[in-house]
Every structure is written in C-alpha cells, then in structure tokens.
Design brief:
Number of strands: 39
Radius of gyration: 27 Å
Number of helices: 16
Strand order of the largest sheet: 14-13-10-11-12-15-22-20
Strand content: 25-35%
CATH class of one domain: Alpha Beta
Shape: globular
CATH architecture of one domain: 2-Layer Sandwich
Helix content: 25-40%
CATH topology of one domain: Glycoprotein, Type 4 Pilin
Distance between the termini: 69 Å
Largest sheet: 8 strands, antiparallel
Length: 650
C-alpha cells in the first residue's frame, strides 16, 4: 500500500524532520499541537494541524485527529507515545497503520526488564540487575535505578550507598510516571569508566533484517546524551561484527520490524560489551547513521510500514567518513546544566560551514518549562573524525544565538578539547575532563566587543532619530565631553567613551586607558563591519530592549545596557533561596524552625519533565517557607529563608 497522508504524533524538531522526508516522498502531513506550541514552526510546516486540548499523551484524541484529516498512518517520532504498546495497538485497531514495530515487539523489547530477559535467553551478555530494590545487595554498589519504560535519561539515578537507595527509587519513580506514565523501575550495576555504544537495526515485514553499524553516545549529563557520533572511535571491524550480530540475534527472536536501536555498555578497560536496552523507535541521534550510510531512516520506516521490502542485504551496507551530532539545549552548564527558559531573540545559523541543522525553534520562539530543553540537533559529516569535530564546533560558534542560556559554548569547547579529539570519550567525560562550561573572554576582547556594540547602537539611534538624523551622533558646534555607554556582561561592566571625528571615524576609550581609533566600514540593522585599532571584523548584532547580542569568532556575547540612573528595586533578602528555573513544586521537606545541614534537600521541583533538588547552601535554621507542594513558581521566586549558623563561614 501507499500513503497519501501521515499524521505525526509529536512536536518540535522531530516532527519537522519526519515532515521533511514525507514531503520529499510526496506525502501530505498532519501535525497535532497543544496551546503552548500554537506558534511553533512545526505547526506551520505541516499541511494541516489539529489542536489537542488534553496533551501529546492523549492517544484517543490523536486517533480521532487522524480519522478527521484522512491520514492513513501515524508516525510517533520519539518520546511521548512512541514506545507505548497500547497506543500502537489502538492505532492498528482503528484501521490505521502504525509506522513502527508491532505492539508485541514494543511490549517485549521497549520494556527494559522484558528486553533484558530476552537478551539473557538469547545468550547476550548483560549487567547484574534486580527487578526490585530488595535485590540491591546482589547487584552491588554503585548501582543505577532505571525506569522500566521510556528513555532520554529520565527516571535514572546513581546510588553510591544503601542509605541513598529509597530516596533514589522514589525520585526515579516520580520522574518516570511524569515522563512515560509508568513508574516501574529496576536496579542495574553501574560502570563508571564505560562507553555507551548502540547498534541501529532495520527490519521489514518479509523477514529481512540488517544493522547499520554503531553510534557512540558517551558524552552525557544527567544520563542524557549530548554528543553522538558514528563510527565509534574504539569499535573495530571485529567488535562491530560481534555487536551487530548480537543486536540482530535479539531482533530475530522478536520478529522485529521497522527501525530500532539495541544499546550496549562497553567497559572501556576490557572492551567487553553488555546489553542495556532496546529502543523500539527512532533515536534522537539517528542522523549520524544516515550521514555515514546514506540511508534515510524515516523513509525506510515509511516504506516498511507500507509493506515494501528493504531491497538490500547486510553486505550492501557501506560506511563513508565520520559524523558527529551535538544537541543544542536550553540549559546552563555553569549551574549544573539546569534547564533555562526565555525568548530566543536571536537564532540564525551561519551559511558556512555547511552542516545539518534540525531545529524545532526559530528567532522569536519562546522556550518554556513544558517540554524537553533541546532546541536543535547539529550534525557534521566529514572524511575524518577530527574534521567532523572541527566542522561542528565552528558551526556552533558561528550560530547567532541570544535570549536563552544554552550549552552551545560548552559543546564547542568539548568538540575542540584534546581528550575528545583523541577519542577519550567515556561516560564520565564531563566530570573527568571538565571542558569549559562557558565562553571566557579577556578584558581586552570584551572591551573591543563592547565598543563595536556601542557604536552599532549609536548608529541605530541616529537611523531612527526623529530630527537631524543626517548629523553624526553627539554632534555639537562646540567641543564637549565624549558620549558614554556602559554595557554589562555577567558581573563585568564595559564602559565605552566615544567621540566622532570629522572623517566619520571615532576616538574610543574606556575612561581609564589611552583612547584608540575605530572606523565603521559598514553598518546595517543586523550587523556591523568595524575596524578597531587596526583589527577589523564583521559581527552580527541583534537588540531586544536593553539587551544586545553580538557575534564573536567563538560565539555570541550578551550585553545589557546599563541605565544612566539607578532604578530602585527590591533586593533578595539575606538567606533567601530562589527557584533556579520556572517549574512546579513537588515537595517541601522542611518547616519553619527546622535546623538543616549543608546539602540537605529542602524543596523538590519539576521543570521540563526532570526533577531538581534545591539544597541548603550552609548549615542553618529555616525561618520562613513561602511555597507549598503543587504550586507553580517563576524563575527567581523566593522559596524559603534560612538563617545561617553563626559558626558557619558560608
């Protein structure tokens, strides 16, 4: 059979990714969306969109939308209902085609516990595990508490000692229930110095089954992948063949169809591999496999669902070059990778280098706490691994980005770090190697950027002046002091004193050092080509209110215009603990009068489907509590007050 219309039961970048292939195949697409996504790009990209009043987990409403729009098939993307066997069965029962593996395969392989049993029966190596907390001693510490359903790093906790187990289990269960509607968890041995390597598989309804090589996904934070690549820097031909055969052996035992991923943990010291889980869906990192094999996995999913044979065998699969993907996320690496929110006042990838951008946002998009913080996937493909890493780093650095704190600078620093280039990419990479978390600029570089921003602002002001716009900024018929503008970047303030010359150039100083010469070669509403003391560069610039985002050769700098006069405002009272992001208060664990030790969990919040624990920064006594469980709080809201002990030096 063939499809004329497909409904995509997902959102963001993966919805747009599926639409791109569907449209290239001549297939119309239908999107579903909630109110928070009404202005999202994927809604406009679809041929038709249907509003969901209840959310992306309402399978019945999605099936109704498919029938109403004439869709013959549903593609679930990843996350949400993609590994929900009940939903897959309901789709088929409703006379629609499910673009994915059969519900029976999802039930047996999508469930991590069931998949592990299948792996044991098939003779595939597995890590020690227990389906109940009672078996923790047999598993041994350290161990992982893992959600039985879903993925994406949600519902996972590292437990170092027995005293931490109950809290970790309860927290993982809450997060799993919120993210997947299933609170079952199990325990598994934790291997710190390891690599996360997965095998991509494809199977059709005629019994043909192949693997498309491996992806390494070891660079992680909070057990969520940040950088993925294919091939792995440590997998040789023999290891690839062994892992590939193990993956196919599992898939054959289930009669697997469609795209799927068999994940393994590789001990970095011994190169032994152990089965972890099976993802019965498309993976976020699937583009790196597409880049090295030339096979469009979404196209294959659609063809398989339509009953077509693969048309190729294992010996037909070839690999070319190296591909690396980075996940650009709205989060603050300098604050423990906490999710961030806000408006993307600037979002413009550079035209070169040419890499693959898969984004769910655009300039003006609002990033909220309602969904996962990933903004885009960026994929570079090159003949060699080192070239791919450099290409991807440069593309990230040249992205004009502002308004929301992201991990962009951290990703670029990781890709350029010698340990990464050498292939030293175990799962503890971030904690062990500690790449730079944010862009660090010297005072001289910051002053030069501040000067460019200040002179761009004066040009904008003159361009929009109601009268005498043709006169240079600050023009007088007598010699007066230079104009001055102060710009704040983090906790640093750049002061720019500038005076225009008759030839159109400027004399610029900072009030302390000797003035330098600046000449604007070209200026527009979007950029400035400026030469400062003999150094010339063109920088893209975006202004949003009192914030100015200026592009550098290594990223985007955010300046805030300092007002000429201080505006009175409230200050955070001493001892006040604030919400690090907007979210929902799940639990308040202290009351007024409680004495707490440093590091004690005081409040548990949920934001972007992840739990975050607010802990005491020092030993002290709780004097006030301002929130309660179930309450929505904004970023920076005061949660409670602690009076530090007098003997505490904090």
């Amino acid at each position: 059979m063939s499809f004329s219309t497909i409904l995509i039961a997902n959102r963001g970048e993966i919805a747009r990714r599926i639409m791109r292939t569907a449209h290239a195949m001549g297939i119309r697409t239908v999107a579903v969306y909630v109110d928070a996504d009404a202005a999202a790009p994927f809604v406009a990209d679809a041929d038709e969109a249907v509003r969901l009043s209840t959310g992306y987990l309402d399978g019945a409403a999605i099936i109704v939308a498919a029938h109403a729009t004439g869709a013959q098939a549903i593609h679930p993307g990843y996350g949400f209902l993609s590994e929900n066997a009940g939903f897959a069965a309901d789709v088929v029962a409703a006379g629609l085609v499910w673009i994915g593996p059969p519900a029976t395969a999802i039930a047996s392989m999508g469930d991590k516990l069931a998949a592990k049993r299948v792996a044991v029966a098939a003779g595939v190596p597995t890590l020690p595990s227990s389906e109940t907390p009672a078996g923790a001693a047999d598993v041994g510490y350290p161990l992982l508490v893992k959600a039985s359903a879903g993925g994406g790093g949600k519902g996972i906790r590292i437990v170092a000692t027995a005293s931490e187990l109950d809290e970790a289990v309860a927290s993982a269960q809450r997060e799993a229930l919120s993210g997947f509607g299933d609170d079952r968890v199990f325990l598994e041995r934790y291997v710190a110095a390891s690599r996360h390597v997965e095998i991509q598989i494809l199977g059709d309804v005629h019994g043909n089954l192949v693997h498309l090589g491996e992806r390494e996904c070891s660079i992680q934070r909070r057990h969520q992948k940040l950088i993925e690549e294919s091939p792995s820097p440590v997998v040789d031909a023999a290891m690839r063949a062994a892992m590939g055969e193990a993956a196919l052996q599992l898939a054959r035992s289930m009669g697997y169809q469609s795209a799927g991923t068999v994940e393994f943990l590789v001990d970095d010291a011994t190169r032994e591999f152990f089965f972890l889980e099976v993802n019965t869906r498309l993976q976020v990192e699937h583009p790196v496999t597409e880049e090295v094999t030339g096979i469009d996995l979404v196209r294959e999913q659609i063809r398989i669902a339509a009953g077509e044979p693969l048309g190729y065998e294992q010996h037909d699969i070839s690999f070319a070059g190296h591909a690396i993907e980075a996940r650009l996320c709205a989060e603050d690496p300098d604050a423990g990778f906490l999710p961030a929110t806000g408006t993307l006042h600037a979002f413009a990838p550079a035209t070169t280098p040419v890499v693959r951008w898969e984004s769910g946002v655009e300039q003006g998009s609002v990033v909220s706490v309602a969904f996962d913080p990933m903004l885009a996937k960026v994929v570079a493909h090159a003949p060699t691994r080192s070239e791919a890493a450099a290409l991807l780093a440069l593309a990230l650095e040249r992205l004009h980005l502002g308004g929301v704190t992201t991990n962009r600078d951290f990703l670029a620093a990781t890709l350029r770090h010698q340990n990464f280039i050498d292939g030293d990419t175990t799962t503890d990479f971030i904690e062990r190697v500690r790449p730079a978390l944010k862009l660090a600029l010297s005072d001289a570089d910051l002053q030069r950027l501040g000067t460019a921003a200040a002179l761009w602002i004066q040009g904008e002001n003159r361009a929009h002046a109601p009268v005498l716009a043709q006169l240079p900024s600050g023009w007088r018929n007598a010699r007066l002091p230079a104009q001055q503008l102060s710009l704040r970047h983090g906790d640093r303030v750049v002061q720019v004193d500038y005076r225009s010359r008759r030839d159109g150039s400027f004399t610029v100083g900072d009030g302390a050092n000797e003035a330098v010469s600046a000449h604007i070669h070209r200026r527009s509403h979007a950029d400035i080509d400026i030469e400062i003391n003999g150094r010339r560069a063109t920088s893209r610039i975006t202004r949003a209110g009192d914030r100015v985002f200026i592009q550098t050769v290594r990223g985007t700098i955010d300046f805030t215009i300092v007002p000429r006069f201080d505006i009175p405002g409230s200050e955070l009272p001493t001892g006040g603990l604030t919400a690090p992001m907007p979210g929902t208060v799940l639990d308040v664990r202290v009351a007024v009068g409680d004495h707490v030790a440093a590091g004690t969990t005081l409040v548990v919040m949920e934001a972007m489907k992840m739990e975050h624990h607010i802990t005491a920064p020092a030993e002290g006594t709780v004097t006030e509590v301002f929130v309660r469980a179930g309450e929505q709080v904004s970023n920076g809201a005061v949660l409670l007050m602690i009076e530090p002990d007098e003997t505490d030096g904090a």
